[in-house]
Each structure stands twice: as C-alpha cells, then as structure tokens.
Amino acid sequence: MSARGPIARIRRYPSAVAGLAIILFLVAVALYTVVAIPYSQATADWRGGEQWRMNPANASPVWTNRLFGGNAPPTLTVSSAEADVESAGFEGGRQMRIPLTFDFTYDDFPSEMTLLLSVLGTDRPAFVEASWQRPDGTDIRLGAYRVAGEDRIAISQDRALEGRLGQVPHVALFAAEAQTGRPEVLPGTYRLTLDAVLFDEAAELQADLVAFGRVHGLAGTDHLRRDLMLALLWGTPVALAFGILAAVGTTVTTLVIAAAGVWFGGLVDATIQRLTEVTMILPILPVLVMVGTLYSTSIWLMLGVVIALGIFSASIKMYRAMLLPLRNAPYIEAARAYGASNMRIVLRYMIPRILPVLIPAFVTLIPTYVFLEASLAVLGLGDPVLPTWGKILNDAQTQGALFNGFYYWVVAPAALLMLTGLGFALFGFALDRIFNPRLRSA
Amino acid sequence: MDRRLREALGFGLFVVRRLLALLITVMVGVYLAIVVANMGGQVDELRLIQIRADVSEAVRGDPGVAPAERAALIDQQVALEVERLRLDQPFVLRSLDYLRRAMLLDLGRAEQMTSDQGSRQVSAIIVERLPATLLLFGTANVLVFVVSVVIALTLSRRYGSAVDRTVVALAPTSAAPGWFYGIFLILVFGFVVPIAPSGGMVTVPPPENPLAYALSVLGHMVLPVLAIFISSIFVSIYSWRTFFLIHSSEDYVEMARAKGLPDRTIERRYILRPTLPPIITSFLLMLIGLWSGAIILEQVFNWPGLGSLLFQAIGFRDTPVIIGGVVIFAYLLALTVFLLDFLYALLDPRVRLGPAGGGR
After folding, report:
1. What is the per-residue pLDDT across A328-371, written as a single tens digit (0 to 9) for each?
2. In 3D, which of A202, A167, A203 has the Cα closest to residue A185?
3. Cα A407–A366–B241 angle (5° rounding)?
4. Cα gap A319→A324, rounded to integer Å
5. CATH topology classification for A73-212
6. Is A203 within 8 Å of A122 (Cβ atoms)?
7. Which of A278, A292, A417 is the closest to B28 by Cβ?
8. pLDDT tens digits for B29-40?
9. Cβ pair A280:B337 closer than 8 A
10. Could A277 and B25 be called an inter-chain contact, meaning their C-beta atoms sit closer than 8 Å?
C-alpha cells in the first residue's frame, strides 16, 4: 500500500473530511490564541479586576440582536473630550459646564449607568452637580458630588435617587411617560449636564458617562464583566492539549504494557492482569475529585493522575486478546530465529500489527478526555488560573445562568465542547471503517 | 448424578475463587485510595487541627479551670486524644487499621455533613443516598441496553438501509457525556418549554400518598434518564449492529439459513445465544463507565444520589465522606465485575474450566 493510500481513502468519506476540517479549525484557533494572547496575559486577565471595568456585566453577545430581532443597547460612553465645554474662571477657581449629549434609540434599557469623574491639576476637591435632560423636555436633578482626584459615581446604585424616581435609575431615566405595566424606552437625545466648580484656576474636570449595554462583543460577558471570548478562545488550546496528551499518554503506555505482558507471559502477565483489575475497580472521576480536593486542581496534576490511572486501564484486556494470536505467528518466530531482542519484538513486530485498530480508538478517545477536563471544571475542580470552557459552564451554573435567562453563557462553551467532540468522533469513526475493512464489508 | 454434582461443585469453587480474588483486588484498590488520601499527611494534619480546636473549646468553656492551667490541660487532652486515635503511630500501621475499617464499611464520622436524619455516621449518609443513584442509573442502563440490542438486531438484518445509515451517522454524537446533553435538556424542557421538572427527585413538599410519590419521582427521572439515553444510545446501537453483522456472517449461521430455518430461530439460537457472553460483558462494562459519570450528571440534575453527595463533600472539604464515597464506588465497581464473572461463567462453561483445567 502506498503512503498516499490512506489519505485517498479518507477523502472518500465525507464524515472523515468533515471531522478533519473541524479538528484543523480547532487547531488553527488554538494556535492563533496562544500567539495572540500570551499565557501570562490570559491568566492575569481572567483573574478579573480593573481591566474589565468598562464592560457591562452579564451582557449577551452582539449577534443575539440579529438573531432574535431585538435592538438591545451596546455600551455607550460619552466623554467630555468631545463635548462643548463652557468654562469661566473666577478669583481662585474655575466654573465649568459640561453637557454630555447622546442619542438613545434602542428597545431596551442600559444595564447600568456610571459617571467617571477626574479632577486634574489640583488636590482640592471639586464640587459637581449633575442634572439629566430627557427628550420630552423634563429635567431631573441627579445629585451633587464632591470629587477629589479620580472618582466613580455609580448612578445605578444611588439608593436615594432610586427612591425619588420610584425605579432603578437606569430604567427610570430612560422610561417613557405612559407607564402601563412594563416600562418602555423613550427614544431620543438625552443630555447629562455637569455644573462644576473647581478651586484652582488651572484645574480641569474630565467626565465620562458610561451607559453599560445589554450586549457586548461576540461572546458576551459574565458576572465579573469579563469578556467570555477570552475563555472561549483559551479553552481551545487547553482542551486540545489535555485531550491529546491524555489520550497519547494512556494508549501508548497501555499498548506497550499489554504487548510486554503477552510476550513475556508468566509472572509479568499475571501481575499486569491483577493490576488491571485493581485499576478497573478504582473509580476515575471520584479519585480525581479526591485528588483535586486534597491536593491541587492544577491541570497538569489532573493530567498526570488521568494517565496514571489509565496505564492499567480495561483496554489492556482488549489489546491482550488482539495480541495473543500474534505471539505464535510465523513472522515473530522468524524474528526470534534471527536473534531479535525481546524489546525489538515487542516494539517493532507486535505493536505495529495492531496499530490500525488502535488509531481510530485513539482518536475517539480524545473527546472523552476533553469532556473529562470539562466535567472536573463543572464540578468546581478546574485549573485555578486557566480560563477553560468547563470553568465558564461552572460559573454559569453557580450564577444561575439558565434561571436568569443568560442562555449564551451556557450555549457558547457547550457548543465548542460539542464541536470538539464531534470533530474527533466523526474522524475516529470514519478511520475505524477505513482501517478495519471487516466492519466496512460487514 | 455425579456429573451434575461435580459441575455444581466446580461452579461453586469458581465463584468462591473469584470472590476471594475480587476481595483482594478491592482491598488493594481501597488501600491505594487511602494512601492517596493520606499522602503528605494532609488528613492527619487536618484531624490534629480539628482535635486541638475541639479540645480548646471544651477547656475554655469549663469555668472550673484556672486560666493559668488551661494551656497545660489543653496539651494533655490533645495528647490523650492523639493516642486514642492512634495518630502517634506510624502511618503504615494506621493505614492498615483504616483499611480494615473501610473494608468492613465502618467509614467513621463525617466532619461537617449530616444525613437527613441527623446522623454524623458516614455510612448512614451514604446509605441514604445510594438508592437514588441505583434507581436512576439502573433504569437508564437497562433502558439503553435493551433498546440498543433490539434495534441493533433489527438493523443488522436491514444493513445499508436509510435507518441504518442514519444511526451510523449519529454515532459520533455519543462523544459527549450524559451531563452535557442534560444541560441542553434542562435549557429546552426546563426553561424554554417547561414541560418536565429540571432538577431534584420529588416535588417539594413530597406527596404523602405513595403512588403520588412514585409518580413524582418518575416525572423527575424523565430528563436525567433521557440525557443518559441520548448520550449512549447511538454508539451502543452502532457497536451492537457491527457485532451482530460480524456474527451473522459466521458459517454456522449461513448453514442455518441454508437449511431454511425461520429468521426468528436463527436470531435467537444461532446469533444471540453464542454472542451472549460478550453482550453481558459490554453491558456491565457500560455500567462501570456510568458509575464514574454519576457525580456530574447528578450534580447537573440536582439528583440526591451518591454523586451529588460527593460533590457536596468537596464543598465542605469533608474528607471522611469523600473517602467513604470512593470506597463505596470501589465496592460498586467490584460488585459489577463479580456479577460479570458470575454471569460469564454461567453462560460460558469454558470460563469455569479455564484456569482449573489449565487448558489455555
């Protein structure tokens, strides 16, 4: 059979081509991710914190607007740098008026509203008064603030304002007058006017009004405002690496051990058989859970335990059954006659004979481990620093994503897991039919 | 007469031998679990801290003890407790003691968790949860097994038909485990089109009437069983179909066909009977696989079984419960393996004679 044989045969199976395409796509995504977002940056960002503060929390992906015909607002930021600032100096200070104007024509309310103020050029606190002008002409006084340095005013969390308006501020400020049941958005141009008094002639006030949206990016955000895209992307190399390494680690060792047992027989074989039975009795997931609880949930430790438990796995019995008839095969006898060493016979003559059966099994084994890693993460035993698909699912579950209707939070990582599983399984099943013609003809 | 007796004796001997071998296997497995759980003395350290905390609390709460004597008294009491629990002995000795207790299912007392009846005994906690797991996974497994074998037999007769090709094409969907489909089932049938309960085992509060109770449990089983069913049915049918196809091309089957025997007879006597041992094997091996997957499926469906118990124990860092759970899982697996051997020997006389007759 020529080297091109298998490839030509693979091309005749559409499912094999589809599976291979999915695998190549995932590998490409993994490579891109590792290059574009370095490991240290990914783990640091995923820990959460300041870098995400301009993101809305629990925002759906942008494409949900398209899909469901909605018109939910993205995050709007209005900066004083683009506003017509009126400013007048006086003795020992400066007076400023900053109108922050923006159009709001969406179907849904913002998820949150925050005012970011910073006073530059002086240590003395400035006095800022904010008022809100709606398209229907009404004017609402939001409050007065003393601002020193940088300050973040969470309008949405202003309990006093909420009491005055009778509703959460980011809803009440945008709601149309006719209020029958569900509040509706009043579309039009809104303006937040800031009247500031600064107590230094060189001082300056910078203001940013952030109306956090209900949609963000291609993947949406979680409860900590983190962009889920980061974890979706980084989950790919993690899942592939874990699945492939675990599959390689277990199949190769198992195969060598099974072959050695069959070839040497006697005590070696008996020991291997008994060890296999012990491992069959050890439940993999509970043991992993125990290790994760008592030691560490590092993905490398988990990988090690998976491989260690997989060395004497039940498949040894299967390989043994396949290898036993080979033991007395004439070509092995010939090898022995010319003086081949035990090692040579096991590695060069016995193992290669059953590789065709093994390769499809190996490929279909990969998704098992990918899902195992996800299972551990869903149980809360995911790697402490790495963003993975399973960890997104775990977050979603603990935050009641389905109950709150954040379906995207569950669907995206699940779809990626399914894609990985399907890719390898399609390819593996097709390989099975290619390498084992007995199944094909049957 | 003596031929039968001899056979029965031989079978009994075989069962006893297998049972002993399995007991030793379980012992080794449990011992390994204990060593893993104790490695680095983590458990001992935790227990020491716990003892010290308990003793200090007891001594501080005693107004009859002068403050100056407290430290000495605490040390003395801790030493006593350490001696009582044999924490001063080397680990090798103690691990043997743990092993004896674990094998006798004396799983000790939980650190934080209690059973619904308020018991701190780990075995009481586990016994309370075990029936739920057995019910759910037993039902699902039997269902998958029976349905897949029956469909596979039918398909193997209609090799290459549209249904057959569809099943083959769908086989890769089994790459995902049950809990994964569970999430989608909950999403669709629990929230989008709420027609089935999405979690738990009975309605709250549980119905008084036993019939209503059973119906409620049945209703709650629908989605988890469906999740297991979807995740394993296609690959199961696929592998059985292939298996039957290979076996139905054996010479003796062709011969039976040539004789003009009806399809039913051929199926039952010429295909099913000789292939029964591998069928049973794979059924029980599937069971083994599912025990391990129980944790997460139960967690996703909030099913109050062993799996979710283990998960709660992780949350509490309740080591005795975790180890107890692992031990119980090991016993369940061993029981499954034993059943496998037993049935195999019942179905295939060669196995019984194998090692004893030395005919290999």
Report:
1. 888 888 888 898 888 888 888 888 888 877 888 888 889 989 99
2. A167
3. 95
4. 8
5. Jelly Rolls (2.60.120)
6. yes
7. A278
8. 888 877 776 665
9. yes
10. yes
Q: Is A139 exposed, middle or buried (0-12, 13-18, 19+ CB in 10 A)?
A: exposed
- Contact check, Cβ <8 Å, A283/B25: no
Q: Delimit the domains of chain B by residue range.
A: 3-103, 129-357
Average pLDDT, chain B: 80
CATH topology of domain B129-357: MetI-like fold (1.10.3720)
Cis ω before A237 (30° cut-off from 0): no
| Single-letter amino acid code for the residue at A432 | D
What ipTM does the predicted assembly reach? 0.77
Tokens of A27: 């590998």
**Contact A353/A326 with Cβ under 8 angstroms?**
yes
Looking at beta carbons, which residues of chain A come within 8 Å of B288? Answer: 280, 314
Nearest CA in chain A to B322: A290
Are B233 and B144 in contact, with CB atoms under 8 Å apart?
Answer: yes
Contact B317, B49 (CB under 8 A): no
- Return the number of other C-beta atoms located less than 10 Å from residue B285's C-beta: 16
Q: Structural domain boundaries of chain A?
A: 5-47+224-435, 73-212
Q: Residue B174 phi/psi, 5° resolution?
A: -75, 0
Residues of B in contact with A442 (CB under 8 A): 159, 242, 245-246, 249
Q: Is B132 on the interface with A (CB under 8 A)?
A: no
Q: What angle do CA A412, A414, A419 make, to 5 degrees?
A: 95
Q: Closest partner residue to B330 among A283, A403, A422, by Cβ? A: A283
Distance CA A3, CA A5 (A): 5
Longest dimension (CA), chain B: 99
Tell me the two tokens of residue A102: 């923006």
**What average pLDDT does this structure show over A244-273?**
89
The token duo for A420 is 């990985």
3-state helix, strand, coil in chain B (%, to 5): 80, 0, 20
Domain at A5-47+224-435: CATH code: 1.10.3720.10
Q: Which of B23, B28, B282, B323 to probe by mutation at the A interface, max A CB count within 10 Å?
A: B28
Compare all CA atoms of chain A with the CA of B286 and give the residue at the minimum distance. A314
B315 close to A (CB below 8 A): yes
Cβ contacts of residue A379 below 8 Å, gap of 6+? A289, A394, B295, B296, B299, B311, B314
Q: Identify the CA nearest to A188 among candidates A206, A175, A170.
A: A175
Amino acid at B91: F
Residue B166 amino acid letter: T
First to last CA, chain A: 22
Q: Minimal CA–CA distance to A46: which of A297, A233, A231?
A: A231
